Amino acid sequence: MMMHVLPVAAEYRHGVTWCVLNDRALGSIRDIQEFGMSNRIIDTDFGVQPDFAKIAEACGCYGEQVVDPNAVDGAIARALAANERGIPAVLDFIVARADAADLRALHLLRQKLSGAAQAESFMEGMI
Ligand SMILES: Cc1ncc(C[n+]2csc(CCOP(=O)(O)OP(=O)(O)O)c2C)c(N)n1
After folding, report:
1. How far is the CA of 96 from the centre of ligand 1 (A)?
2. Domain containing 48: what range?
């Protein structure tokens, strides 16, 4: 989701819901920094996040932040109900950081197959 699409979707009354899985990070890039670049985490892990629900509302959309897992069904129902009325929606689900085991495994496999130096350049090439 890019922020500028929100007022456009509202303008054209698109019945669409964006679900943000909000772990306060650009996760895939952060994982590359952690596992492929000697744990140099730069500008991918955030202490401050915008309030995406308020941004949605400011753009004429329905917005809701969801923290409690028990609130997921209700939030989805409210978003879809807004969509039925021609109002786009953003659901900002606050989630824990996912386990990066897959990327770590891929990195280790590349190291085994082609040596550490090549694995490092492979990870750099992914950015
Ligand atoms: C407009 C745009 N800017 C930058 C990128 C480069 N990019 C690819 S993945 C990524 C991080 C995405 O983070 P997030 O949306 O949190 O998803 P995650 O990696 O956690 O699955 C970035 C910045 C992109 N693909 N598109």
Report:
1. 17
2. 5-96
Mutate to test the pocket of ligand 1, among 2, 26, 46 (most ligand atoms within 8 A of CB): 26
Is the domain of 124 the same as that of 76?
Answer: no
**Closest atom of ligand 1 to CA, residue 29:** 11
**Domain co-membership, 9 together with 71:** yes
- Give this prediction's pTM: 0.80
Where are the extended beta strands (E) located within 1-127? 17-22, 62-66, 89-94
Domain count, the chain: 2
Between CA 66 and CA 76 the distance in angstroms is 10
Run means of pLDDT, 10 residues per run, the chain, 127 residues: 92 97 91 88 94 98 97 96 98 84 65 58 53
Around Cβ 52, how many Cβ atoms within 10 Å? 21
Query: What is the structure's pLDDT at 127?
Result: 47
Cβ(29) to ligand 1 under 6 A? Answer: yes
From ligand 1's centre to the CA of 23, what distance in Å?
13
pLDDT for 40:
95
